[in-house]
């Protein structure tokens, strides 16, 4: 005489032990403890071969080199005025302003749009290197080796591998009276 299957059922306690054993066999381990490191992020760009980074909040947008209208009587580093979606934006050559030599326009050339203290400007740079992340321990006290004009706009830097990134302050640039004086001397 065979025993019906329903009568061979295990007790609830045995069933719970079996579920517990299966759960333990298939359970994932506890997450490993990971060291949390603070980071700072910014937009990386290059001017005259120098790797620079600025705060994300200081750059409003990044543009390809736009069509320009020259500004008569302006300094040579004022490239012109661009119409960007119906807004007039002065385009300033950063290499021209800081180093005295014009930026060569190429495929990588970009314009960083800033708005500081009511002033809007497009800053022509050699290239934009994208979003950069730095750990706090990569911060340096001083900026990388550069010209005095560029150093005036740097507030420290970061070192990653073989690259010393200068921390460029758009606010310091906007506060610079020489940057705000765009009229060429001797011209009306």
Please give a structural write-up.
With 188 residues, the chain is an alpha+beta fold. The protein has one domain: CheA-289, Domain 4 (OB fold (Dihydrolipoamide Acetyltransferase, E2P)). The chain is 19% helix and 38% strand. It has helices at residues 12-26, 94-99, 148-151, 170-175, 177-180; strands spanning 39-47, 50-55, 61-64, 78-84, 87-93, 110-116, 119-125, 127-135, 139-140, 154-160, 163-168. The strands form two sheets. A six-stranded mixed beta sheet has the order 8-1-2-11-10-9, with no helix packed on it. Strands 3-6-7-5-4 form a five-stranded mixed beta sheet. The N and C termini lie far apart (117 Å). The relative contact order is 0.19. The model is unreliable at 1-7 (pLDDT under 50).
Spell out the helices and strands N to C.
HEEEEEHEEEEHEEHH
User: Could you report the average pLDDT, rounded to the nearest whole number?
Assistant: 88
Largest sheet: spatial strand order = 8-1-2-11-10-9
Low-confidence stretches: 1-7
Describe the structure using short key phrases:
188 residues, OB fold (Dihydrolipoamide Acetyltransferase, E2P), 5 helices, alpha+beta, five-stranded mixed beta sheet, elongated, 38% strand, 19% helix, 11 strands, single chain
In short:
The protein has 188 residues and is an alpha+beta fold. It contains 5 helices and 11 strands, in the order αβββββαββββαββαα. The radius of gyration is 30 Å and the shape is elongated.
